From TrEMBL, chains A, B:
GO cellular component assignments: cytoplasm
GO molecular function, one term: NADP binding
Protein name, as recorded: Gamma-glutamyl phosphate reductase
Keywords: Amino-acid biosynthesis, Cytoplasm, NADP, Oxidoreductase, Proline biosynthesis
Positions of transmembrane segments: none
Gene name, Swiss-Prot/TrEMBL: proA
Superkingdom of the source species: Bacteria
EC supergroup of this enzyme: oxidoreductase
Amino acid sequence: MSILTEMGQKAKEAAVVLAVLPTPKKNEGLCAAAEALLAAEKEILAANQEDVAAALASGIKGAFIDRLTLTQARLEEMAEGLRQVAALDDPVGEVLSMKTMDNGLMIGQKRVPMGVIGIIFEARPNVTADAFGLCLKAGSAVILRGGKEAFRTNQAVVLVFRQAMEKLGLPADIVQVVPDTSRESANEMMRLNGYLDVLIPRGGAGLIQSVVQNSTVPVIETGVGNCHIFVDETADLEKAVAIVMNAKTQRPGVCNACESLLVHEKIAEKFLPMVGGALQSKSVEIRGDEATCALISAAVSATEEDWATEYADYIISTRVVQNLDEAISHIRKYATGHSEAILTENYTNAQRFLNEVDAAAVYVNASTRFTDGAQFGFGAEIGISTQKLHARGPMGLKELTTTKYIIYGNGQIRQ
Amino acid sequence: MSILTEMGQKAKEAAVVLAVLPTPKKNEGLCAAAEALLAAEKEILAANQEDVAAALASGIKGAFIDRLTLTQARLEEMAEGLRQVAALDDPVGEVLSMKTMDNGLMIGQKRVPMGVIGIIFEARPNVTADAFGLCLKAGSAVILRGGKEAFRTNQAVVLVFRQAMEKLGLPADIVQVVPDTSRESANEMMRLNGYLDVLIPRGGAGLIQSVVQNSTVPVIETGVGNCHIFVDETADLEKAVAIVMNAKTQRPGVCNACESLLVHEKIAEKFLPMVGGALQSKSVEIRGDEATCALISAAVSATEEDWATEYADYIISTRVVQNLDEAISHIRKYATGHSEAILTENYTNAQRFLNEVDAAAVYVNASTRFTDGAQFGFGAEIGISTQKLHARGPMGLKELTTTKYIIYGNGQIRQ
């Protein structure tokens, strides 16, 4: 038995206990884990400092180091996140529907835990706490496999959670971390059929593609967002500038940021210089088609590749289109199905865009930056699904559950 | 561009039309397809006779030939199935929820078509019509890849459907059949990411495993059922015999048939001879543990392998257990998560079984044979999901759809 199948076995046993755990006990576990996290500040920050030092020594720098680094304030955020999950409604046990058939069978559909959830993620220690908290509340055991640069930190955090569970008489194996960050362990995890009910990758496009390509357990694909804003002929141009600026620059590194701007030709002459000036004031590079470059002198020529690129940076591709149809065609060709927006005062065009654009979230007159579990009122999210199976868009507690049919009979046999 | 990517491209184009097709037009398409099927009886039966003759010549026989063979009556059933799907409610367009957030954004979740659905199945021509009908009503284009023995039949049936679509001004590519039944074409279909939104295998365990192991597009695993009935100490034994007989013998070849019987030790002495006699009268082979063999002289010894086997035949494995806990442990170890039943008059045991057994359908005092789309009131089904992602249990029209978030704003930007 390999380490991973052994972990899978232990997770399955913990899941049996978790599946019938009353809500107050799960909430107690979450609050105890939050407290334990703060109490272990010294050990966790020490482990994290080792990780950061090793990463710096290997030449890593910039935003990566920032995401890897824990501070007292970040530990407090992680603890607060766990407490917030405790305050959310428990999704488990809800009977979504129940009806009595002609033969007297009462058939109901009940929300139940997944069982065992696997999460593969990069070197962001906060994901460790988020994933543990959401899975626990949703009644599932979790196996975490974080990026190698955060290895010591993840071990330290998970150890604290496990000890907190045991103190409450709960199985420590509610949460496990893979003690091996080799590519082989990731690949084995992707093929842990019979143990993992679902595998969720959280991270960049490379990680997600690797999981999609190699996994035989069911996967929920998350995150890649080449998001568009189409500024229609009738858009309120002041609002349009504010929305484009928000969607592009409020936090350019995230998946719901705007990457590509489509502008109706009838307003291009007026709108492009307006938005161009605003973008330049925030040092956003504009890669435009010919019409854009003619109207914004600072714009550079976009290549075919630009239309398909999620920059996650202070860059935006920009194109002038003839009408709504051309905008929808462009989106159909290049978008990743994440978040798409139309800015318009035309009722019919708004409804057409909502109906005809195929994405997890489709907006009229708002920034794409709202595609987020907290903004949607879910309290917390495990990621944003860009696939169509099981969950689409921000995934909260409900999306981490499944259902089963429960049937009450009194001797029925099939004719 | 390979044949399959070309088919994928055409399906995507057809899906764009289908996604916004009004319900009456879809129903018109279904009824026209039903009529066309009957009108083409001569051509379809001729193609089918060639398939059957080739199968017989290659040494195939028995139930396989029966499933492969079309008759006028079976064509009528297929046409009637299409008309029944036309009569079902259209799942597309339902807004499952919509709420107004504090910032004034109205966020709704709307049921929308999947897009393109792939179905890989064995030599059962009726699946061709079922799958086409359900996918059309659910607003998705479908790519079918049937077993090679039914190749000519499937081509003939799909040609009829395509012509019927064109006559109504709809895209013929709503339905396509892969013109190649090689293993390579199946493998390529399993990796048609970017074109297929979901792939559903329909058939035996070998086919399903091959799809699960090789597919990079999202899969819904269907069908394998090692279903148990646990006869508790307080069961009504007359009803229990009737239920076991129904679940085992009413149609032994299907996935919701009972394969394994667990009997509480306190009633084994009375119940096993009762049920043993009934099973023997229908020539069911009983493979039992020691206690069973001591009470049913005709029973043979079960091996470890028996407990894990879906016989799909007139065979049942039988074991005496000490109590509910042992029954649940046995089911947890050997079941495939399809359909499980407890027969009991004990309220607490009934509720515990419903809560603690992890399966798509869990029954109290009824036959496992009811796990079926029609029996659950869905009208028709595309298969029975035994995985936890997206759909679990019988899959009707709703399970062939996905959702998207639609957001109405008036200039909101994220703080």
